[in-house]
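S.,

Sequence below, as promised.
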Amino acid sequence: MVKFGFHVSISSSIDKAVERAQKLGCDSFQIFTRNPRSWATRELGEGEPEAFRAKRAEAGIEPVFGHMPYILNLASPERKVYERSVASLGTGLARCEMLGIPMLVTHVGSHLGKGSELGVERVVDALDIALGGDDSKVMVLLETGPGSRNSVGSSFEEMGRILNSIVDADRVGICLDTCHVFAAGYELRTAEGFEETVNSFEVEIGLDRLELVHLNDSVGGFRSGRDHHEHLGLGEIGLRGLGLVVNSGFGGVPMIMETPINDTRGNLGNMNVARGLVGMG
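The prediction came back faster than expected:
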């Protein structure tokens, strides 16, 4: 069975996310464990981790994924931002351990014009520092980038280099975002093109390193470099391409949707579309 879910809000209290996921019929879900747009971290309230663990266990929803704030830049050549990013990742790992969340997704970042080689080196060092200072078993999942200017991790080749250079490689995997890889130039819309994409992933990274798919359509076109998600089937990838993803070698892991919140379609509508993709690839 393919597990589908959403990124859900932690507004008011983290344990409320479980109830929101249940109402959406999620088999799995993802949350920010803190404010996604600030370096400041609110301490978890008394009993909050225990409440989250208990509600999740009662709901029987697993796995749950954490997601790091957008402001991290593990590839940054700027010392202050880099040090804050590494420290924040370490805090995120500890927070996931408290909440019983086994995997933590993070964007990789930008080399800010200093070149891919330096960017990859900075990311590897950041992961080695954060994982080396953490004794939990929480995995870090590197999210594929959209091919925007100076981004690191938008190519499978770069991701493979990062994974092959990390000391504690068993604690790092990949989150493949369909919108991002499409925008970065990996074809998903045709059987032939999609097969090439899967083969490239297998050669450069390995399908065994894939732990999560972010199932999103794309407002931007192929190789546009745009990180702009769309409702399933209403974007440039379309139902055919998303169906290929769901029913392929990428389909053996949870599929989390990060679709827009607007009047075009609600989350329940996207869940119905996602479940309808099973068997159509």
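The radius of gyration is 18 Å.

Coffee later?
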